[in-house]
Design goal:
It is a single chain. The chain has eleven helices and eight strands. By secondary structure, the chain is α/β, with parallel strands linked by helices. A four-stranded mixed beta sheet has the order 1-3-4-2, sandwiched between helices. A four-stranded mixed beta sheet has the order 5-7-8-6, with helices on both faces.
């Protein structure tokens, strides 16, 4: 999810009910983007870029709201907007704003800007991309940050995870951890394998644990692996592990760690001496 502006290409006749305009004219989308970015400029936030995947997800959500007569960022079945964006190829953190009844973006954006909660999302510096959809007066604007936005370099990720976990360990009067190359390589191999073969377990489909990979790479201590799916930053990943695996992160015998992420899946491998 990143970097260069992309062309907008919408098939306005391919979705929804016959005879009804199925989405905003691309010029209307650009006007909405212009209004959002003008507000962001006032707040000193970077300009948002259009995303084809987010446009498609926003359009799909607006059509669903119109056809099934509901309004909200979550479907009646409880599926969040992130489920749509992921299915359409955008991996990252998403927030959806919805509105009903307006035929043009000006009143929609005017209402949102006057609402402190909505405006805080519109001008948040964490977002880089936007998608805009409208069907039958039902508007969806998706604000998003790509995984890559918070993870520019594998070394930065490892160091940040180490810093956050050691902060927790210091608060618990425990020895701080060190990075381990064998554990990091094992974590990366496991993440890549999970992404390639679409599984989410600490053992691969053949039953081999992550720790075996580390042993083959020369790590002599005992290991335990912790997984996370969905975090878009080291901060979110560590918070996930503190909730699901706090005992492992704060175990007094742990001395080393390795961590990696691929396609939204994270692997943390902790090791003893």
């Amino acid at each position: 999810m990143s970097g260069k502006p992309i062309d907008i290409s919408l098939d306005l006749g391919s979705q929804g009910q016959a005879g009804k305009q199925q989405g905003p004219d691309p010029r209307v989308q650009m006007k909405a983007l212009e209004l959002i970015n003008a507000e962001r400029a006032k707040a000193g936030a970077a300009q948002l870029l259009m995303s084809v995947q987010l446009n498609n997800a926003a359009q799909e959500h607006s059509a669903d709201m119109d056809q099934r007569d509901y309004m909200g960022p979550i479907t009646p079945e409880g599926a969040p907007i992130g489920a749509r964006t992921s299915r359409l190829g955008y991996e990252g953190k998403c927030e959806a704003l919805v509105a009903m009844g307006a035929g043009s973006p000006e009143p929609v954006l005017s209402e949102w800007v006057q609402n402190d909660a909505y405006r805080s999302h519109l001008v948040s510096p964490q977002y880089q991309h936007v998608g805009i959809g409208m069907v039958g007066g039902m508007w969806t604007v998706i604000l998003a940050a790509p995984v890559a936005a918070s993870m520019k370099d594998a070394r930065d990720i490892r160091n940040r995870v180490l810093e956050l976990i050691n902060r927790e360990r210091e608060g618990a009067a425990l020895a701080i951890l060190e990075l381990s190359d064998p554990l990091g390589t094992a974590a990366q191999a496991h993440c890549a394998d999970m992404a390639k073969r679409d599984f989410f377990q600490t053992v691969n489909p053949e039953g081999e644990p992550v720790g075996v990979k580390a042993q083959k790479l020369g790590f002599a201590g005992r290991t335990v692996a912790c997984l996370a799916r969905g975090p878009v930053s080291p901060e979110e990943a560590v918070q996930t592990w503190l909730k699901s695996s706090r005992g492992n992160l704060l175990h007094p015998e742990i001395r080393y760690l390795g961590v990696a992420t691929t396609a939204g899946k994270w692997t943390l491998v902790l090791g003893t001496k």
